[in-house]
Each structure stands twice: as structure tokens, then as C-alpha cells.
Design goal:
alpha+beta; 6 helices; 20 strands
Amino acid sequence: MGRYRASAVVRGGVVAAVAGALVAGVPASAGAAGPGGYGFDPAGRALSAAATTSAAGLLEPGGTYRSTLPAEGRTYYRLALDATSTAYVAVTAVPPSGAEAAVTDGIRVAVQDADGHYCSTDTASVGAARSPRPVTAWGTREAGNGRPACQDAGTYYVVVERLRSSSSSSSSSSSSFSSSAWELELTAAVEAPLKETGPTTAPGTETSASVPPLAGPARKRPGGNGFAGAAVVGQGVWSDTLTPGRTLFYKVPVDWGQRLSVTAELGSAPDDASGLVAGALGLSLYNPARVPVDDATVSYGGSQKTAALDDLPPVRYRNRYAVHDEVSGMRFAGTYYLAVHLSERVAERFGAGPFDLTLRVRVGGAERQPGPGYAGDSIPADTFRVTDEERRAAALGGGGFAGGVTGGASGGADAGGADAGGGTAMKALAAGGIGAGTLLLAVLGGWTLVARRRAGSAAAQTRVSAQNPTA
């Protein structure tokens, strides 16, 4: 998947409430499904794609937008930025399903200042699977990077265009894929500057040993159909089913100093199936700004296969100064997103499925560390930190989230030797869960009492009517 992307960022009611609390970890509802079943953010605002900068609509930080990308030409969107904050724009393109795609079919996203200078550029394509899927590219205006361009307050432009392969017009189905407009979901976020300037070099390379994936039985966890509907998971082993052509989304809270490790395993096909599908299973990781961090793909020949992300560093502010995406992307705390895609072409060889998926998530590392000390609020306010609500949701779904040293779904201990109890997060969750459960039982008990009283009253009225027919 992202092995085919290239980035060149230029640095510079009471019961309803109780029920909601008890199922805080389930996927959020998403809007109407788009191509391939992608769930757009129901709060997303419609924004027309402009063919020129003068007609570009405004992307407000903290907003989510829905637009379209024509088959030909560039589309423009506008940003209004100050001189001290770093801005991020993520563009997710959703191509139509059911058509043959080329490896390089995708999108390019750039950010330019008012004088046409490039602040950043990034590309994303469907990759070796040649299966239509949501692809995300990003752009940034990074403040204080020492470069003369893209540092002033004012108007900036986000430029989005299609990447097209010459082979994508070789058949009628691919021609339809190539000539149709793609739907877009865009987000904009602003990261506040630091109170005090720290080192501006990447941390040194760490030589920590690779940690094996979590073992043990998996717990059922249905994935979401888009970023907005991503299912919350914590450390643990999770299972779902995946049909060819679909993409499942999950999100994992990862705090400062913590390290994320993820594998996705596709189960075996029926014995009578045969063949090989290149790049059939794809696993992608995105940071809280939806910036692509890392991905992995594996081919599928009917036997179980596992896609594993690279060894990722602990989350640190200084990671942004690194060269490689899998390091620089781990630059802030918050909710990290996982997207798991199964190629449409799997159905040709192994049937329509569904196929078993096992997701193994480990959140390890040191004790949760304080943030770098921002001089103001980022937008959205909770994008670049892990909230208590997110910790509770992860604990509810993943066996705790205290410093990344909690037990997995199997109830075992983390490699660091911590107990599986989940620490303070699980204690808080247990207290909250008991309280919420008690409240729910009280409400239900009240309903039962009222129902009994009404039933008793009705019975008494019946007896009175029977004794006094003329009443």
C-alpha cells in the first residue's frame, strides 16, 4: 500500500447516556456510505472543488469536509494561517469500487503559499493490490523550520490532483475507474507552537529488541467503515471478518513515550481454493492528524498470512525531524488510526468470503510521559493528546491503558512484566463501570417497580369493575 507512496515534505435521556457510557468503545456511527462502503464523517461540510485559487473554498482548522476530485485537472482549497502554528491537511480519496486499478493510480496533495512556493507535497496510490480503496495523502505548513518560504501569516492553498497510470485506460472497466470523479474527505488541524524551543534534531536510533505480537484468544471487535467511525481498541487481540474490496478502520490511543506495535492476520481460505493475489492484505497506520505513518502488504495464496508494521519509535515531539515517515509520523500523542484492506481480487481466486481477520495490538514503552509544553491550544483541542475518555474507552476495549504496560485480551502480562490488571486506568474504569452499571440497574429497577404498581392498580380496578358491573 504505502510502499508506493512518496512524500517530500519541505521542512520549515438518562438510559441512553448510561448505555452510551457502557459501550464507549464501540465504533461511532458514520454518515452515508460512499464507494467501497467508506463511511464519511456525518458532520462533514460540503465544499465545492475549485478549478482556480481565486474560487477556492476555506478549510477551517478543526473542520471535516466532503468534496469531489475530477478525473482531470487540479482542485484548490484555501487555508488562513498565522505565523507560529503548524498546520496539517489530510485528504482521503475514495475511488469507485468494482473497477480495475493500476498500481500508481492515486492522488497528489501539495500546500503552497500565496506566491506559489511549495510548502510540502505528498502522494498516495492504491498499490500492489490494484484494488480500489481509500487512499490518504497529506500536506503541511510547518512553522519555524528555518526556511524563508511558507512562514508568514496569510493565505495558503491546498492543491489536490489525480495520479493516473497509462495502463488505467486499457480496458472498459479501468477506463470507467479512470474517468470518474473520486469523492474526497478533507480535514485540517493546527498544532500550537511550543512554550520553549527544544532540540531540532531527531532522537538517536534505538536498539531495542523487537517485541513479539501478542498471543492468546481474540475478542470480537467490528471495525469501522471510515476514520470517523473507527472502532476504539487498546492493547489486545481482536477479531473481525473482512470481505474483498472492503477497508476496516480502528483507532488506538498512544501517549507520549509509548510505542505502538500492530499485526494483521488473514485467516486461511477453503481447501479447494488456489491461486495467488499480490498485495492482497494491506495494513496502514495514520497519526492523529491522519498523516500516513507506515504500512505493510502481503500476498495471499490461501494460507494464513500476516502483515506487520515496522518497528515504530516511542512517540516524541522530536521525531518530526527524522527523515523516514515511520519515525517522523510518530510526532505527537493522540489517537492513531489503523486501516485494514482486503483486495477485491481475492474474490476471483478464493470467493466472496468473509475472511477471518485477527488484529494484534501492543502499546508498550515507558510510563506515560508529559507532553512537550504547548504555548496554546491546538485545533481541534484534543487532537494531539490522549484524553481520559479515550483511555477509558481503550481500557474498556483493550484491557487497560496505563503507561502501555497492560495485559492483552488473553489476560497475560506485557513483555515489560507488568501485571494484567491495567493499573489505575482499569481501576478507574472499574469504578466508573460499577457506577454506570449501578445507575442502569437502578433505572431498570425503577421501571420494574412502576410497571408492577401499574399492573397492581390495573388488577385492582378490574376487581372493582367485576364487583360493580354498573360502575
